[in-house]
Amino acid sequence: MSTLEIKGLHVEIEGKEILKGVDLTLNTNEIHAVMGPNGTGKSTLASAIMGHPKYEVTAGTVTLDGEDVLEMEVDERAQAGLFLAMQYPSEISGVTNADFLRSAINAKREEGEEISLMKFIRELDSKMEVLEMDPDMAQRYLNEGFSGGEKKRNEILQLMMLKPKFAILDEIDSGLDIDALKVVSKGVNEMRGEGFGCLIITHYQRLLNYITPDKVHVMMQGRVVKSGGPELAQKLEAEGYDWVKEELGIEDETVGQEA
């Protein structure tokens, strides 16, 4: 079992404190969901874990199996087993999906142990079939000209091919119709198991109808203020966040805009 542990994490952006002491522990074989109103720091948490230079960690720790993640470069975090499916994936002209994925897989392997071309093609074809992706997408430039739904499927394709220890899915359901949502959820559920943990950042219960989380956390004012099981997400969907604020005596304010 691997463990991703966040303790007392404080993060600033351009001098404004966004995260104000986040505590969260995620093990492999677990799927956690983080929910909360806009501007409470959910996407900031994802970016800080992965080392986005815009976000300054001012206090706290992030460790992966006891190793200090905050001391790692971004590529080292990926090689250690962390993966971020971004809310707005970048387009890269001149680099095909297939070339990008094979290079990313080999970057995690020792010299002389690169994945063979035939094994790579078999695995890529298999994963694209699960995600109901057009085989031609393998030879298209990375995300270039992709629809929003195609970009999100492509993020899950990368997840399935790279097989990280922990994936952070930042609003992977944003902009998806119901059919695409089901397909993306199927890909995440295929990864579920002892060697994989997942942190899902979402606003809506609808994604969690297809990916049942083990734990649900509510973020407000830059902290995790409440945790529970899948029933917590259902109550949030039915009643909104006001009951949490009332229960915990939280004033109706946000900490800033999420990036």
TrEMBL record:
Domain ABC transporter residue range list: 4-246
SUPFAM superfamilies according to UniProt: P-loop containing nucleoside triphosphate hydrolases
Keyword tags: ATP-binding, Nucleotide-binding
Pfam families: ABC_tran (PF00005)
Signal peptide: none
ATP-binding recorded as keyword: yes
Keyword Hydrolase: no
PROSITE patterns, alphabetized: ABC_TRANSPORTER_1 (PS00211), ABC_TRANSPORTER_2 (PS50893)
SMART domains in the cross-refs: AAA
InterPro entries the UniProt entry points to: AAA+_ATPase, ABC_transporter-like_ATP-bd, ABC_transporter-like_CS, FeS-cluster_ATPase_SufC, P-loop_NTPase
Family designation: Belongs to the ABC transporter superfamily. Ycf16 family.
Designated name of the protein: Iron-regulated ABC transporter ATPase subunit SufC
